[in-house]
Specification:
Strand content: 25-35%
Helix content: 10-25%
Largest sheet: 8 strands, mixed
Structural class: alpha/beta
Radius of gyration: 19 Å
CATH superfamily: Metallo-dependent phosphatases
CATH architecture: 4-Layer Sandwich
Distance between the termini: 38 Å
Bound molecules: zinc ion
Number of strands: 16
CATH class: Alpha Beta
Length: 318
């Protein structure tokens, strides 16, 4: 059935949470489905609103986010909860359960299971304690761990490249990508046998699979990497060895949303609304945020795209 897709993008990052909503309207029927995407990233071992180093109260963490997630789900059951990686390292909690006591169930995974995550993408810090620890944690997860660009030596994927979730009749493809710079950071023994391929090339490859083979309605890229260029000026930030989200947004067709993480860039702090006149421009307005302690509060909202017409507007607020 030919489907005219009307996408209203509203992205909100609150305490490390990205929120995006997509109303879908069929051309021949008055059926509208609103899908909400929630993203966490760089949680770095924080479950409770507690400073694990100072033994003191703190803001942020999965427990507080869980309350927000429940509220969003109550408003819209058609919600997907995604994590963009770097959750397995960062506090004494994760050190203890990934280095000292490696038989007890992984606490981050346990918390994420309770919260009902739909998927996560592996990031660089997932590998800090070695592949056996990655495999243990992954085996305990009730949600898939994605990465389309991490391969075995034999050329097959080590992790699940993508998932397709049908939400109220809408096929949503979620593609995981991991910064390719891991071999330049990680202890070689921790990633032995793995090949990290270029994320732009892999995005082109797998988005084609999602569109042509899986026939998805919506392509969401969950990339653990950030922007290598300033989103407003195009100025090269000199980080393309680890960040390629800008290149993906500008050169890979078929992507509806890119959810990013990893980089210490914040959205521009101005509150001016701006218009844009191309879908790519809308995609360029993707969110960048560093929220290791879960205390950042940023807002990005309002990109309205109708695929049968030219996009009408794109609004960005940092
Ligand atoms: Zn990272």
């Amino acid at each position: 059935m030919k489907k005219r897709l009307s996408v209203l993008l509203s992205v909100v990052l609150i305490l490390g949470l990205v929120f995006a909503s997509f109303p879908f309207k069929a051309a021949t029927a008055a059926t509208t489905v609103k899908i909400t995407l929630l993203e966490t990233s760089d949680v770095h071992g924080v479950i409770y609103p507690y400073d694990y180093f100072k033994d003191a109260p703190a803001n942020g963490g999965l427990a507080k986010l869980s309350t927000l997630v429940k509220g969003v789900r109550a408003e819209n059951p058609n919600t997907l909860l995604l994590d963009d990686g770097d959750n397995q390292q960062g506090t004494p909690l994760t050190y203890y359960f990934n280095k000292v006591d490696t038989t007890t169930p992984n606490p981050m995974v346990a918390a994420m299971n309770i919260m009902g995550y739909d998927a996560m993408t592996l990031a660089n810090h997932e590998f800090n304690y070695g592949l056996a620890i990655v495999d243990k944690a992954r085996s305990e997860a009730k949600f898939p761990w994605l990465s389309a660009n991490i391969y075995k030596q034999d050329g097959t994927n080590y992790f699940t490249p993508y998932i397709v979730k049908t939400v109220a009749g809408v096929k949503v493809g979620i593609l995981g990508l991991t910064t390719k710079n891991i071999p330049n950071w990680e202890v070689p023994a921790n990633i032995k046998g793995l090949v990290f391929k270029d994320t732009v090339d892999e995005a082109k490859k797998w988005v084609t699979v999602l569109k042509d083979t899986e026939k998805v309605d919506l392509v969401v890229v969950l990339a653990h990497e950030g922007l290598e260029k300033d989103i407003d000026t195009g100025k090269d930030l000199g980080t393309s060895i680890e960040n390629q989200a800008y290149a993906i947004a500008m050169t890979v067709p078929g992507i509806d949303v890119i959810l990013t993480g990893h980089t210490p860039l914040h959205p521009r702090q101005d509150t001016q609304w701006r218009a844009c006149d191309a879908a790519e421009e809308c995609r360029r307005r993707d969110l960048q945020g560093r929220h290791h302690d879960g205390t950042d509060c940023h807002r990005l909202e309002g990109c309205h795209e109708n695929r049968s017409q030219s996009p009408r507007n794109c609004r960005h607020r940092g």
